[in-house]
Design brief:
The chain has 147 residues and is an all-alpha fold. It has helices spanning 5-14, 22-30, 35-48, 52-63, 66-73, 77-93, 118-127, 130-145. The chain has 2 domains: 5-93, no CATH class; 118-147. The longest helix has 17 residues, at 77-93. The radius of gyration is 36 Å and the shape is elongated.
């Protein structure tokens, strides 16, 4: 089912988390009984609101980032700071994702002047008989004039 703005608003209003703060929803995410409802509410809220924290919380919930969701659920300044410090520590301890490298431009081959093949062409034209030379000249003129 594709979530549209209208269905997202209806889902928010019908949810048991309607009117709750992100902290309350994150606490509900941690409880196995309300886990699915919390993820559905976060998806709907992320679509409707312009607040980035709801979108980030939805990404964390869908991605299974329990440490980040625990940080969202933390209450009080000291507990919140400690929880987010753990998230930052886990991010710095995680192996860095290799950045996609741009393909390096291949070095262009040095331009070597082509040998002037006019002499060879002239020899071939001299070797033609009159009928073949006439056909060649007619074809050359038609190609040049586009007729």
């Amino acid at each position: 089912m594709t979530l549209t703005r209208e269905t997202a608003i209806e889902a928010i209003q019908a949810s048991p988390f309607a009117g709750c703060t992100l902290t309350d929803v994150a606490k509900g995410y941690a409880v196995k009984k309300t886990h699915k409802d919390a993820v559905a509410y976060l998806a709907a809220k992320a679509m409707v609101t312009s607040r980035k924290r709801w979108l980030n919380a939805h990404k964390a919930a869908v991605g299974g980032d329990d440490l980040r969701m625990a940080a969202y659920a933390a209450e009080g300044r000291a507990e919140t700071n400690t929880a987010w410090a753990e998230v930052r520590k886990a991010e710095s301890d995680a192996p860095a994702k290799p950045k996609a490298s741009k393909p390096k431009a291949k070095a262009k081959a040095p331009v070597t002047p082509k040998a002037d093949n006019l002499d060879a062409l002239a020899e071939q034209l001299v070797a033609l008989d009159d009928a073949a030379f006439t056909k060649f000249t007619a074809k050359l003129i038609s190609l040049k004039t586009g007729k």
